[in-house]
Amino acid sequence: MAAADSAPAPSSSSPECPAAPSMPTDPDFLSCVLQPPTPSSSSRPDADYAALRRLLLRRKPPSALQHRMEWRCNGKGYVAYRNFLLRRLDGGSAHSTPSNSGRWAHSPGPALSEADSWSSIRDLRTNSGLSRTVSISSKQSDTERHVRFAEPAYSFVGMHCIFDSCKTSVTILKFGRASSDLLAYGAADGSLTVCQVSEPPSVLQKLIGHSKNITDFDFSSNNQYIASCSLDKTVRVWEISKGTCIRVVYGVSSQLCICFHPVNNNLLLVGNANKEINAINFSTGRGISKLNFDDAVTALDVGHTGQLIFAGDAQGYIYTVSVNSHTGSLSRTHKNKSSKSKSPITTIQYRTFSLVARCPVLISCAQDGNLSFFSIATDAKGYLTLICSLKLASRVQTIRASFCPLLSLEKGEFIVTGSEDANVYFYDLARPKNSCVNKLQGHGSPVIGVAWNHGENLLASSDSDGTVIVWKRAKTN
């Protein structure tokens, strides 16, 4: 600044002014060169004019090269790319830094006339040479597009890994309990594959024994065992480290859903097509008790205290069942209708707490596309109250959904679900309109299963072609 003020002014009596450098690099020096001639009575240039020139030069938008460098520094995430595009359109109104990458950027005014959409392309090759293209997009309503708010969104940087060894539909997949890198998935050919998704991703075990479609499975609390059920009318218990089946429990009908009791891991709860839930002793394989229902039990989950079971049937009803953690005895307490249609329940998922409901909550997903969100009255033996519902496209496949717990703790009530259009969708149930906030594109066939790992930095999705994609979430502060 001092050099700029002390630079000699061109004299009005001189025949010509000194030539300016051809490629000036110092903005202060350039501001002096661009100053107009001064009055003869003054020996110094106009200080205000010089300051204005300096201000305008410093406020020039940075080059596109700098924008692209910033995009690369932010992990090439789709939020960084969107901010790069917005800055090019708005002249620098959006900001993308490592501290807010992965979050909605704040913009004071409208920038795009259509829904925000951009793509982040990334090729991954597995051991089999599979190459796929990832496209990640987000949508906002017309009103929200005019005023963007600082809301954390599920942003992804692409695929973490792909498993494509299965040649039939992958019907169910889950991460291990309190685990970030143990993943298992069951397929329509009866196989159950256990994988490790940490670097380098690998298949640990392939459990062969079921002869038909695996409908459900669950990890024990220590991740040493898996209990699976199938349309072949059997329940099998597997020891993961050895890759062997240590117990088979035969039934009289298709076994449709299964879970370990969260408090007493020696207790297995199994729903079947014979309209009943069976409580089975894990150690002996013998039945302890059973409870009859009005139709086939297609989905179930257990509350964190182990005192309540929530089960969905093939007619769209949701039942609340009391269970004794010590004896395994079952008793039905409530029957709730999830929707007006009579469609099988494909997903029942319990969650301990919700900021929206201020109590434990439950989501149910039906095959006709109805998503229902309930509050649970624990003091009334698990009575369910419908808070909101969402109607999605009707499905032919048995497509599942899941809570997004970490995001829901900040704002809204978010869920993720597969779709028959080969996309993975994120919905905010707290928004009555335009509830879709994000989607992932990468599958080539209907997406059936979705599952989060313990830290929610990885999301796994499976499709009807047998491909499992593990998506890597962008880091947020």
From TrEMBL:
SMART domains: WD40
Keyword Repeat: yes
Biased composition regions of type Low complexity, renumbered to the chain: 1-23
InterPro entries hit by this protein: WD40/YVTN_repeat-like_dom_sf, WD40_repeat_CS, WD40_repeat_dom_sf, WD40_rpt, WD_repeat-ST_regulator
Keyword Repeat annotated: yes
Keywords, in A-Z order: Repeat, WD repeat
Region (Disordered): 1-47
UniProt WD repeat ranges: 207-248, 440-477
Pfam family, any one: WD40
Xref: PANTHER family: WD REPEAT PROTEIN 26-RELATED, WD REPEAT-CONTAINING PROTEIN 13
Name recorded for this polypeptide: WD repeat-containing protein 13
Organism this protein belongs to: Urochloa decumbens
Lineage of the species this protein comes from: Eukaryota, Viridiplantae, Streptophyta, Embryophyta, Tracheophyta
